[in-house]
Each structure stands twice: as C-alpha cells, then as structure tokens.
Amino acid sequence: MQNALSERARQAQPSPTLALTARAQELRQRGIDVLSFTAGEPDFDTPDFAKAGALEAIHAGYTKYTPTPGILPLREAISEKLERENKLRYAPDQIVVSCGAKHALFGVFMAILDPGDEVVIPTPCWVSYPEQARLMGAIPIFVPADETTDFLPDYDALRRAISPRTKAIVLNTPCNPTGAVFGRKQLKEIASLALTHNLWIVADEIYEHLVYDGYNHESIGALGKEVLNRTITVNGVSKSFAMTGWRIGYLGAPLEIARAVSRLQDQMTSNACTIAQYAALAALQNANGEWYATMRATYDQRRRLMVSGLNSVDGIECWTPRGAFYAFANVRQLLGRCYNGRTLESSADVAEFLLSEARVATVPGEGFCAPGYIRLSYATSEAVIEAGIQRIAEAVGKLMQAS
Ligand code: PMP
Ligand code: GLU
C-alpha cells in the first residue's frame, strides 16, 4: 500500500478558526489565563423559545429519521422567512436543511463543482470556502480587496477573474472576517457577471441580522427572477439564534440544485438532527424584531469598544466593520519588529506573539487569504474586550519600544 490516505485527505487542511479556538480552550483548561477572541460563536444562550421546541419534540417522540431535506414544517417556515425577511421566493421543495451552513455549503460545492472548475472568491474570505472548493478538485480564484475599498472587490478585478472554466462566485455579506457589507451597486455588478457568464452565485447570508451604522443587508437573489434562478442562498440558525451547537443550516436554490444537494446528503448524513430541526422551527416561528434588535445592539456596543480600543494601540489599525461580529485589524506595522530575539515576519507570528506575550488568542489573516491582519471576534463580553485590549496595548507597546 503506497498511501494509507486518499489524495483528498492528505490535501485537506484543518479549519484554522476551529484549531485556534480549541488551542485557546486547551490553554485555559491547563490553568493559563487566556482571553479568547477566536471563535465566531455567539456568547448568548440559545433562546428559551428554541429550546422549548426541542423539548417538545423529545416528549412527543419526534426522535426518528425525517426526510433528508428536513421536516416539511421547517422547510415551510424557512420558505416563509426567506420571502418575508429577504424577498426571496423559494418553495419548500427548493429548501434543504443540513447540519449547519458549513455542511450546506459543502453540499452545494459538491453539487456544482467538477475537478478543474474555478470558483471566484472575493478575499479576505471565510476559511472554509477555498478549502471546500479544493476538496471538490476545483480551483479557487481570489479577488483581493482591502480597507481602501471598504473590503469590497473591484468590479473589473472580478470580471478579469472569470474564465471559461468559472462555475460559481461566492458572495458573503455581511462578511466574515472583514465585516464588509455589500451594497446594491456591488450586488448588481455581481449579478450581471453571473448572468453574462452563466455562473452560480453562492450567497452566504449567515450574518444577515448583524448590520450596524445604518447599513442594510440585501439578498442578491431579491434583485429579480433571473438572478434568483442563478442564486443558491445559504443561511442557518447558528448566528441569528445563538444555536451553533444545534447544527442546523439550510439553503434555498433552484429545484435542480436543491434536489442534487438532497441526493448527495442522502449518502452523507441523511437528515440533520430531528430534535434540532424542531428547535430551529421554534426559533423561526418565534423570531421577533425584539430578539434581533437586542442582539444587534449588544454586538454594536462591543464592536465600538473593540474597534476604538484596537485603534488606540500604536501599530494597529482597524477598519470599522459594518456587519458580522469580527474586527479585522491591520497589523502590518508590527511586521519586522523583534521581540526576545525573534522577528515577527507574518500575521501568524503576530498572533503567536499576542498569545504568548499578552495571553490573547486571535486568528491570523493567513487563514482568510489576507496576511497582514488578525481577526478578533467581539462575540464576547465587554469586560473581556476591555481586558484583552489592555493586554494587547501593553504587549504591543513593549514591542514597539524594543524595536
Ligand atoms: N458561513 C460563515 C461566513 C461563517 O462564518 C460560518 C461559521 N459559523 C458558517 C458559514 C458556518 O456556520 P454553521 O455551520 O455553524 O451554520
Ligand atoms: N465560522 C466561525 C468562525 O469563523 C466558526 C468556526 C468555523 O466554523 O470555521 O470562527
């Protein structure tokens, strides 16, 4: 036997966000007082109305398999939600419920990508898009953007990234890790490229309810029927209802795609957890403006604290995010500086320096295809943010003095 593992398994990279979250947890378990800004995970508890849905399901004996794409009442509730909140018309049979939005995206890529196909991905981007595309044998084509364009990709650069082999374009708004929010103009540009070149738009809208400073989330599929016919909308309950551990994500897609994803899911997981589906149903049925508004206001307050704190540190510059719950701080001024005989050569080194010297865990930009930055999640308490900023300021202060 030459290789115990398949080529795919050998190539697969672990998720750096999950790896760093685990590392911070492990250090804490060993008694080291680490403040963690790694996890893209709400610190709120799952609302009681969602938990009640799960408890009722257990008592009613809804503990068996369901149809692979999910129970009909949940697909109906998702279809109604997408129409009501996002102006997207997907019938219940165009909805597939999966084990988290990550799983839904995996199913989508599996359904649309062949080896050698290209996927256009604006960067900085969430860690899993390029990796999932590569697992299908496809090639991610990156279109970088930075603070100078509010982290929004340039239209000409997007156009130039498209080749005859391009199959899809990924759109993540609000964006993890930057907090960029795509406006109507950028959505129209992406839609026109998709229509002209016959591409799928994979729209990940998982942070839709977290937008600040008067910015609005708009769904690209709402631009018109033609665009909707090219759009696969991915979403889930992880962020909107603090339900990361329940593992419920979903997609709305043209029927052909929804059926293909469901067929593939038949052979992977069958249905997502039945009890969790009932919890998600209760979450969607009981969702009200107050829940979203309280959550948004809490994150907004933390966002201001985090961003102003980071910008008060000499050597760090942080663009003000407009959505999601991450600060994406530019740390290029720290590169080339020496500490304890070591030179910081990359943002991975900066993250390592902050972990060892400030006991603050962050995620370096490399995983988001954006070296020179670090990501800090502000889905944590104001007390932790304040303490973390203080530690960062002290450590970076010493670094700036030392070199
Ligand atoms: N998309 C983005 C942009 C994310 O940040 C995440 C991380 N939670 C996901 C999808 C996946 O979410 P989940 O699998 O928990 O639904
Ligand atoms: N999406 C979250 C993050 O970016 C969770 C970790 C992951 O799934 O990669 O931190």
Give an overview of the whole structure.
The relative contact order is 0.16. Helix content is 43%, strand content 15%. By secondary structure, the protein is an alpha/beta fold. A hairpin with an 8-residue loop joins strand 14 and strand 15. It folds into two domains: 7-45 and 290-396, Alpha-Beta Complex (Aspartate Aminotransferase, domain 1), CATH 3.90.1150.10; 48-287, Aspartate Aminotransferase, domain 2, CATH 3.40.640. The protein has a seven-stranded mixed beta sheet, with helices on both faces. Helix 12 runs parallel beside helix 14. The structure holds 4'-deoxy-4'-aminopyridoxal-5'-phosphate (PMP) and glutamic acid (GLU). Residues 15, 17-18, 39-40, 102, 126-128, 176 line the site of glutamic acid.
SSE map:
Blueprint: H1 7-11, H2 16-29, E1 35-36, H3 48-59, H4 72-86, E2 95-98, H5 101-112, E3 118-123, H6 128-135, E4 139-144, H7 155-161, E5 166-172, H8 184-197, E6 200-204, H9 225-228, E7 231-236, E8 249-252, H10 255-266, H11 274-286, H12 289-311, E9 317-318, E10 326-330, E11 338-339, E12 342-343, H13 347-358, E13 360-361, E14 363-364, E15 373-377, H14 382-402
Parallel strand pairs: 1-13, 3-4, 3-5, 5-6, 6-7
Antiparallel strand pairs: 2-8, 7-8, 9-10, 10-15, 11-12, 14-15
Helix pairs in contact: 3-11, 4-11, 5-6, 5-10, 12-14
The structure holds 4'-deoxy-4'-aminopyridoxal-5'-phosphate and glutamic acid (GLU).
